[in-house]
Every structure is written in C-alpha cells, then in structure tokens.
Amino acid sequence: MNVIERIESAKGPLFSFEVIPPLKGVGIETLFKAIDPLIDLKPSFINVTYHREEFVYKKREKGYLEKVSMRKRPGTVSICAAIQHRYSIDTVPHLICGGFTKEETENALIDLDFLGINNVLALRGDPIKTETHFSPTEGGHAHAVDLVKQINDMNNGIYLDDEIREPYPTNFCVGVAGYPERHFESPHMDLDIRYLKDKIEAGAQYIVTQLFFDNKKFFAFRDRCWQEGIRVPIIPGIKPIERLSHLTFMPKFFHVEIPGPLTHALMQCKSDEEARQVGVDWGIAQCKELLENDVPGIHFFTMGKSKAVRAIAGAIFSDR
C-alpha cells in the first residue's frame, strides 16, 4: 500500500518519520537501534534520505591536491529494502536531482520497483559544501519538477530509451516537499507556491513540509495552497529541539524561525537535558494543535536520534 492509499484509508492521522543512512563504514544495526523504539507506535511509512557525492581534496606527491568524489552516506535503496524486510513497513526513499544523471535516476527507480518499493519523495537537493548555489549535474535534472515528470513518465511506461519494446509501467506514489516559511532560495512565497503547484500538476500526489515551530505558519501555508488550487494532502514535518545549540543551529541550517516563547524557554535552560524537555513539551503541544486542525498525519525528522521523537509521538499516538 502506498502513502496516498494509506492516507485515504486511514481511520485517523498517520505517524511517520525520516531516518538518515549511516555513515560509510558504519553498520546498519546503528540505524535499527534508532528505529526500534518507534516501532510500537505503528508508523505508516519510514522515509530514508538520499545523499549525493561530496568533494574532498587529498594531498598527493609533491604537494599536489587531487579532487576526489565520495559519498559519505551510501545505501538508500538497500536500506529501504532492509527496513521493509525487517519491519514489514513501507519505506519512502528520497530521490534527488543533484549528483545524478537521468540515466542513474532511472536505474535507481528500476531497482526500487524490482524490490517492491513503490513510494518516492522527489527533491532537488541542496548544494554541496563547495558550492555557493545548487549546480545541476551534467545530464541530470535542475529542478524537482523535472524529476517528478521523469517518475510520472515511467508510471506511464515511458523510459529514456525509446527503443524498449512494450515498456513496463511502474506504479510510484510521488511526494514532494513544501516550505511553510518558503524555500530559502525563493524571493517570495508567491513563487514558492507556484513551483509547488507545478510539481503537483506534474504528478506529485502529496506534500511533506519542511520542519517548523510555529503552527500559524503551517496553517497559513496550507490555506494558501488551497487558494491556489492545490488539493493534495499536506503532511506537517516536525523536528524537536534536542540541545541548547539548536537555538542557533536550527534557524541557520533549516532557515526557519523559532517563536519567541520557545526561544525564551530555551534561554532559561542550563543543560541539553533541560533543553530536550522544553523541546518535547513544545512538540507535544504543537502536534496536538495540528491534529485538532485535521492534518492527515505528522512526519518526524529524527536525524538519527529517536529519544525526543519517541517522547512526543508516544504522547500523541500511543493509544492506537
């Protein structure tokens, strides 16, 4: 059952979360340890992020520097298969534009289809650390809407190789990202919503938002989507505050605003443990308000850590 089918058949809001592949050289058991505490809450699906190559410069003989490409977190496709095999829970791999050609994307989609994984979250992806702005890979996509179109083409039996005889149509359910506080590269929310609508018209079936801490921003975003004719389910994304440093890290890294009351509460904390409890309390109140306002589910960003997510989701979904 894909994500949209689960939303449409659900008797209540869905619980889902996102995990990050382990660093290269780290076993998958570390990932399972982060997932295990959340399983009894009956997640409807688990997202697995996708990571492009990064470049490092290694010193060679005579002081020369060699630019070397590496992927620090490989294995999204195999991790999705492993999670489905271990837990019998649907997975949603992220596919990104940056770092991949259209042919590589098609091959990844074919592998996913062979494994019985029929959900995808289509994203442009962020610039790598050595770039000041996103730069598309030669032969790849520049925008998420183009990735959505390629996936939708495959759902209609259209592959890059037009000489394939009787091509097999895939059946991917495609999700995309939405930004209640607009994408940091977008000059105005009007343009952000326009791009989002383009992705829906290209075949995307639901939206998962970037994290936010102010529900008013989410409700305003949802209302704006409705006004512009976007009728697909919009799932709010939640990331709890877990340490004191998040007060400055979150706005800088995720380009979101931390509301005044939450900022004030965190500034009174003297330890990460106190900050985590403030984050949990805020997250519980935030999620309760969202559920009272008819969201189809809540999607949590774990960033490899499940303690705070478990506390929040346990308070919301434990009676299911």
The percent range for strand residues is: 15-25%
**What is the share of helical residues?**
25-40%
CATH class: Alpha Beta
Uncertain regions: pLDDT < 50 for 5+ in a row?
A: none
Distance between the termini: 19 Å
Give the count of helical stretches: 11
| Total of domains | 1
Count of DSSP strands: 10
CATH architecture: Alpha-Beta Barrel
Biggest beta-sheet profile: 8 strands, parallel, barrel
Q: C-alpha Rg, in Å?
A: 20 Å
Instruction: Tell me the strand order in the biggest sheet.
Output: 1-2-5-6-7-8-9-10
Given the C-alpha coordinates, what overall shape results? globular
Order of helices and strands: HEHEEEHEHEHEHEHEHHHEH
Structural class: alpha/beta
Average residue pLDDT: 91
Q: What is the CATH topology assignment?
A: TIM Barrel
Summarize the structure in words.
The protein contains 11 helices and 10 strands. The longest helix has 21 residues. The mean pLDDT is 91. Strands 1-2-5-6-7-8-9-10 form an 8-stranded parallel barrel, surrounded by 7 helices. Strands 3-4 form a two-stranded antiparallel sheet. Helix 5 runs parallel beside helix 6. The chain starts with a helix and ends with a helix. The chain has one domain: TIM Barrel (Alpha-Beta Barrel), CATH 3.20.20.220. The protein is globular. With 320 residues, the chain is an alpha/beta fold.
